[in-house]
Structure formats: C-alpha cells, structure tokens
Amino acid sequence: MSNIPGVSLHWGNLAITATHTSGNVAVVQIDPSTQKVEVTLNGNTEEFAAGLVANITYKGGSGGSDSFTDDTSLVSLDYGYGGNNTFTGGSSYNYVYFHGSGNTYNAQYAGSISDVFENGGTGDTIRGPGTVYTYH
C-alpha cells in the first residue's frame, strides 16, 4: 500500500507507474538516515522498510520524456515509452525496455549488469561504466 498515486508495494515488488502522459520524474534510493527504501514520483515521497522491498518495476508515460533513477542495489525492470526518456540503473541487475527514439540509459555503477532492449527507435545513447548488453 502507498499514499502516492502510481506507487504500490505488493509481494516485494515496488511498482511505480507514471501518472502523467510525459515528463514524469521518479527516483528510488536508500534514505541514509532511516535505511529505508525511498521512492519519489513527481515530487511526492514515501519510504518503505528495506526488508519489504525485493525489486523495482518502473512503467513510464506513453508520451515519453520521463526520468527514472534507481540508486539502489535492487533488481529493476523498467519500461520507457514514447522516446526521449532518461533512465539511470542501480548497482544490481537492470532490465530496460525502450520504445521510441532518443532515449538515454546510464549504467552508473561499475559492478552493475544491464540488459537494454531498444524497440522501434534510433538515436539512443547507452553509457557505462557498468556492463551493458544492448538488444535491437
């Protein structure tokens, strides 16, 4: 249960679903003062006990231009639609599906492993230092 529209926690999955057609901003991180998993979606923030969160799913808006940052060691499954999205992966396994053109993926941690699936777009930018496998 969550107090933020578009955010839910069920069976260990922290699910984040964009609430706007485009321009959504979502960040998941560990709050250093409480050690809880903190999720912010479009300016609204909530925390969950770390032991209750096993993985993250992010589903962006159909119009694109979304930003999603995973700054945790949790496995994430992320969907970006409409193009021009910017996603940043966490330090674990990251599975990213981009639909549309002009997307950017940042594998910010050297030890991370990311699979990025690009569907129907061109001009995507994929950056390390993490290990990234790209599929077209």
Q: Could you tell me how far the N terminus lies from the C terminus, measured between alpha carbons in angstroms? A: 36 Å
Helix content: under 10%
**What is the averaged pLDDT score?**
96
Low-confidence stretches: none
Q: What Rg, in angstroms, do the CA atoms define?
A: 14 Å
* Overall SS class: mainly beta
Strand content: over 45%
Indicate how many domains the architecture comprises: 1
Number of strands: 14
Order of strands, widest sheet: 1-2-6-8-10-12-14
Largest sheet: 7 strands, mixed
Short description:
The protein has strands at residues 7-10, 13-17, 25-30, 37-41, 44-48, 55-59, 67-71, 75-80, 86-89, 93-99, 104-107, 113-119, 125-127, 131-135. It is mostly beta strands and 136 residues long. It has one domain (7-135).
